[in-house]
Each structure stands twice: as C-alpha cells, then as structure tokens.
Amino acid sequence: MPLPIAFLLPLFFLLAATAPSSRAADADAAPAVPQPRGFYINCGADKEVQVGSIKWVPDAGFIAVGNASAVNKPAILPVLATLRHFPDATARKYCYTVPAVKGSRYLVRTTYFYGGFDGGAEPPVFDQIVDGTLWSAVNTADSARRGMSTYFEMVAQAQGKSMSVCLARRPDTRSSPFISALELVDLEDSMYNTTDFDKYVLSTVTRSAMGAQGEIISYPDDQYNRYWAPFTDGNPTTESHSPIAPADFWNLPPARALKGAITTSRGKKLTVQWPPLELPFASYYVALYFQDPRTASPYSWRVFDISMNGKDFFRGLNASAAGVMVYSNTIQLAGKTEILLTPNGTCPVGPLINAAEIYQIVPVGGRTATSDVGAMEDLARSLKNPPPDWAGDPCLPRQNSWTGVGCSDDSPVRVLSLDLKNRGLSGSLPDSIGNLTGMNTISLSGNKLSGPIPDFSSTQTLTALHLDGNQFSGAINPSLGNLTNLKELFLNNNNLSGLIPPSLKTKPGLVMRTEGNKLQ
User: Fold this and answer.
1) What is the pTM of this model?
2) Nearest 5°: phi and psi at 412?
3) Which intervals hold domain Malectin-like (predicted)?
4) CB-based burial, 451-489: b 16+ in 10 Å, e otherwise
5) CB 429 within 8 A of CB 441
C-alpha cells in the first residue's frame, strides 16, 4: 500500500509561466535536435506545438473524458496555454492511457498551471494516480498565487502495454481537477535498476546540479529530459576542466549537470544541507555524483568519506577526473538532511560534490490480475458509452475503482462483480468477458446491449447473471448450463430465439427467467 497521502511528498520546482526560457529560445534558433523518446502531451490542445526540440501533441488520442479549456494569460508557454479539466463529480477518476512497453522504465511527469481558468480564486486540491498506485495530492495553491506552474515526477515500470495517469477527486476537492501537460519519457534499463519496480516506484523529491547557477538543466543536455535545478549554498564552487562522459556514470547524468561543484579547501570537511527542505520520515533512494575538476594526471586524486545525518554513506571514495557515482538504494531520512564529506588526511585538495538526486520510495498499490485487466478493457471498448471512469486500473486504488466494479482483497486483485443495471448502455459483450474467472455476479439489466450472449464456460464461480431488459439476440449459449454455481439467470425481455438448452431446464436450484423472447 502507498504511504498515507500526507507523507507522499513529490516536491516540485516552480517554473515561470510568463515566457519561454532563454534556453528554449536558443533551441528554436539552433539546428534541430532529435526528440527524446516518449510521449509529450499538451492537455486540452487541438494542434501540435513545437517548443525547442520537443513536439507536443494534443491529448485527444489519450483520454475520452473531460473538457478542454484555454488559459487567458498573456505570453505564457504554449504548453501552459491550454488544459483539460474534469467537471463530472460522479466519476471516481479521470485517466489518460499512454502506450508503453511492458517491463520498460519511464519517467512520468505531470504539469499544472491553474491560471484561474474556471474563474475561481484558488485551484482545487485533488489526487493523482499512476496505474493502480496513489501517487500524491496535487495542491498548486502556492504556485498559483505567484503565477507559476508546478510539476511532479515519478520513475515507474510499465506493467502492461500501456500506463495510465489519472486524476481523482478528494473529499476536500471543491472544483474541477485539471492538468496542463503529461510526459512519459523512455529510460534505459540500466537507469535506477537497483530498485525493484515490481514493488516500488520512485517519486522525485529533487535533482540538483551543485555549484550551478541560472536556469534548470534539461533537454537537450539531458537526453531523458530530467530537470536538474541549480544548487548553491555558502560553500565555494568550482568548475570542471576535464571532459565528462555521461556514459561513465550510472543513471547517465548530463555532462552539464556535473560541470560545476561545491567544494572546500584542503583538509576541511565539507558540509552541505541538501535537499534544502525538511523531509517526512520515509525511505529514500539517494544518488550522489562526483568528478575531480582538474585535468587528469597521476596526482589528480581526492579521497574522502561520505555520511548523511551522521551515518556512513560511503567510505574512501576517490573522486577522479573520470568521475564516480555512489548511491543508497534505501535510506531512511527525516527532517533536515546533512551531507558531510570528510577528507583523507593526506589528500592534497578538499572534497567536492557535483550533483545529487533523491527520490521517495513509494510501494506499488497492488496489482489487478492481468487477465482481468485485459477483459475489462475489452468490455470498455465494446460498450459505446461506458461510465466516464472506465480507464486505468479497474480495481485500484480501491476508492477509485471503476463504477459498478467490485474487486477482491487478494493479490493479485480479482474482479468479482459487475453492476451496471439501468445505465443506458449500448454495445455488446466481448468474448473475453469469459476470462473474468473470478466473477461472482453480473448485473446488466435494463440497458440496450445487443449481439449474442458470449461463452461463459470459464466463469465457474458465477452465481448470478442478469441480462434482462436488453436487446441480446440469437440462441442462449449452452455454456451457461455448465456453470455449477449458477443460481440466477435472468434473460427475459430480449430478442433471443431457438431452444432453451436442456442443461438449463433441468439445472437444480436455478432461478431462470426467459419470458419476452422467442424461445422454445
């Protein structure tokens, strides 16, 4: 289960929403750079827009619900000029579905710019969900007051052929949840690969380029479009004069993020308060990057010990000109965090640090059985007007399961019941509905469903099937007579024809209704 929402802290940078950065403007004039792999979705837009080297596409192909709206603010970034909002308070969640490769790792980024689109004085607070995992609350009130945008990041692994990113109302949500942009960026398999992504996701706290000043470092410097924020404190800074090869570092940090460093003089300890905020008590993934800025030589060595909050992190690190990264896969932190670098007694220069990343480790919120997910997705596609929240994981998070869908407490989670009676549904039932082998009850009475009744022979746990008051046609599927636990079969008031299977007529304990058809 995910941590309580108050402790899910995807800390964010505030991005100016008034004009493109100078770096984006430079990119427009520079030769074209290949677009980073992934999807860059401009929510609420009706046409593509190019920002630097990245082409942003409209969101219409990724979501079927919500309303597009323009943000009436002068000279804002094109990606922030539109948004999609979700006024339907009956839906349990509103989901984008983005193609993915099962088992691949992705950087997921959501961006929010309120801009008073709904005429309100303050943006709503709501939740965001990735697949079945409750990620965080989205509260952009502080940035909205300053005319800024807010972004959140997560590193996660695709569990199927798509990933869903959803918004959901909370009890304190007062108006429509909204989103400005969504990114799903392909990462290499080697990146962050010490984390078991079958069990956890990494929610970004911060990513810093030490000793750097000015703008955030991102694409094209970082080919994965990660954001590296400049970080300085009262310590001296230095700049590297050695060539830096990102491929020499685990996680492939951009050379520009390693160009600067925070340091101190020979023989002194280097203390860095980082990240520059208090952390909730939780488990974190921390990666620290080091590179000696001097020209490589037999004498260009600097050795020191690393500790965090008084506990050993790494001893005897040699930060050579080639560079090195050290990490903790799981470290518990709380409150203010202090990194202490203690030099070796014979080291000719002081310690330094070039870059750092920290992520909160969030347990995955369970899994719904793959076969059940596939069958429910097929059903959603077969219905012409499914409920608006029928996207993303059918069962998870539990408070945001699909309307009318009941699920188990098992692992993996199973779909147990379907109750969508009298909802005006049209369409048909796919053959794959028979793959819902944990199903106990199906109630689809009083709709406008048509076509044949599919084969239910694999749903041996089914006790009640209510299909009355629809437009089903053809013969009664004989597989229904082989369901050993079936107690109620309501097929009345359809367009069925032919013979009632003998196995149903003689089935003990079965309550069957077939009137209003052309059956014999």
Assistant:
1) 0.90
2) -70, 160
3) 41-361
4) eebbebebbebbebbbbbbbebeeebeebbbebeebebb
5) no
Q: State the residue for tokens 């960026």.
A: 185
Calculate the CA dihedral of residues 8, 132, 12, 338 and round it to 10 degrees: 40
Cis omega (within 30 of 0) for bond into 220: yes
Rounded distance between C-alpha atoms, residue 316 and residue 314, angstroms: 7
DSSP for 347-404 reads -SS--EE-EEEEEEEEE----B-HHHHHHHHHHHHHBSS--TT-SS-SS-SGGGPPTT
Which run of H or E residues covers position 458?
none
Give the separation between CA 131 and CA 159, rounded to whole angstroms: 9
Cα–Cα distance for residue pair 267/251, rounded to 1 Å: 31
d(CA 500, CA 485): 19
pLDDT tens per residue across span 339-383:
999 998 888 889 999 999 999 999 999 899 999 999 999 999 999
Three-state DSSP at 248 gives helix
Which amino acid would we find at residue 481?
G
What is the separation, in whole angstroms, between the first and last Cα of the chain?
A: 53
DSSP sequence for 127-174: EEEETTEEEEEE--HHHHHTTEEEEEEEEEE-SSSEEEEEEE--TT--
Position 193 confidence tier, pLDDT thresholds 50, 70, 90: very high
* pLDDT, mean over the chain: 91
Q: Is the pLDDT of residue 483 over 70?
A: yes
Residue 446's nearest CA partner among 494, 508, 407 is 494
Helix (H, G, I), strand (E, B) or coil at 498: strand
Do residues 265 and 350 make contact, with C-beta atoms less than 8 angstroms apart? yes
Q: How far apart are CA 360 and CA 233, in angstroms?
A: 23
